[in-house]
Amino acid sequence: MVRSIEVFIFCLLVMLQAPFINNLKLLNVRIANHTILGSSTTLKCTFDLEGEHLYSVKWYKNGDEFFRYLPKSKPNIQVFEKSGIYIDIDKSNSTEVVLKSLELSSSGTYRCEVSAEAPSFQTVFQDRDMITVEIPWISGLQHEYNVGETVNANCTSSKMEIHAQLVWYINNEKANSTVEQGPYYKKYFAGSGQLVTTVLGLSFTVTDGHYKNGEIYLKCAARLSTHYLLYSDEKIIRFTKRPPTESIISNQVKQAKMQENSISVQNTPNIIHMVCVLVFCLRNNRKMLVAY
Ligand SMILES: *[C@@H]1O[C@H](CO)[C@@H](O)[C@H](O)[C@H]1NC(C)=O
Ligand SMILES: *[C@@H]1O[C@H](CO)[C@@H](O)[C@H](O)[C@H]1NC(C)=O
Ligand SMILES: *[C@@H]1O[C@H](CO)[C@@H](O)[C@H](O)[C@H]1NC(C)=O
Ligand SMILES: *[C@@H]1O[C@H](CO)[C@@H](O)[C@H](O)[C@H]1NC(C)=O
């Protein structure tokens, strides 16, 4: 007897639940695992209402709501101020939120939460982590080197929660570890914890064979491994040996290699001309590829 009451109650509960089961579904929350400082990124959240009516789409970062879409309100979109979050409202809607001018503090756990209207008030959500990083930079290089001179440079990673794995390339070949120094780690104490920059030195004596068409091509790549993935970016520096009339340095930053994925390109040329007795030209080209 007791048993059949239990079965009855169980069935009743299942029946009561039934109209709400398999209704509102979150199909996909897509957020780039890594984003680049200063760039933009699109947070995507797709859902299937399965006959329900949409009440709200809310976005949270580390538990704080920063975006709300209510189809029945005017305006539809409300945004809440949060450090590291700058929303491009014109490009945002119920399924996409565009974040611009990313900062290192944009890193965090993002949640998309979708709710249906009465009577079900069903709510579904998913979390995704995003890390905003800065491309590594090269320092210490002179404008020009002759055969027999020593090239000394450092490659420094962005401040991160993890140690970056840095690699130097000379003319697109991985530099022998005998010409690398470090890595050295510099720790910084941030609000919530500790951040680290990684520095990898490069030191080698230039030989005639290093010059390819009068230039040596140096590149530093950062390989950031988080829980599941690797992300890398590259920085490229070319410089020429001293020619009779002029010397040209060009510094290119390239960031690539991020597994499959869609790509957007950002270009920031920055040219400094130095006119001495001879003409020196320092050119700095930054190119970024941002991918999902
Ligand atoms: C992003 O990270 C998730 C888990 O953290 C992983 O499953 C996914 O493959 C990563 N995506 C890319 C493009 O690396
Ligand atoms: C949101 O905007 C994106 C890009 O403009 C567009 O592709 C998408 O269809 C829009 N979604 C809705 C539900 O309007
Ligand atoms: C590279 O960094 C190390 C450690 O911070 C420093 O001692 C060295 O002087 C730097 N070298 C150059 C060429 O900037
Ligand atoms: C790296 O340099 C060492 C010492 O000069 C040499 O013995 C070794 O073969 C080099 N390795 C590569 C991969 O070039």
TrEMBL record:
<protein>
    <recommendedName>
        <fullName>Ig-like domain-containing protein</fullName>
    </recommendedName>
</protein>
<feature type="domain" description="Ig-like">
    <location>
        <begin position="19"/>
        <end position="122"/>
    </location>
</feature>
<dbReference type="Pfam" id="PF07686">
    <property type="entry name" value="V-set"/>
</dbReference>
<dbReference type="InterPro" id="IPR036179">
    <property type="entry name" value="Ig-like_dom_sf"/>
</dbReference>
<dbReference type="InterPro" id="IPR007110">
    <property type="entry name" value="Ig-like_dom"/>
</dbReference>
<keyword id="KW-0732">Signal</keyword>
<feature type="signal peptide">
    <location>
        <begin position="1"/>
        <end position="18"/>
    </location>
</feature>
<dbReference type="InterPro" id="IPR013106">
    <property type="entry name" value="Ig_V-set"/>
</dbReference>
<dbReference type="InterPro" id="IPR013783">
    <property type="entry name" value="Ig-like_fold"/>
</dbReference>
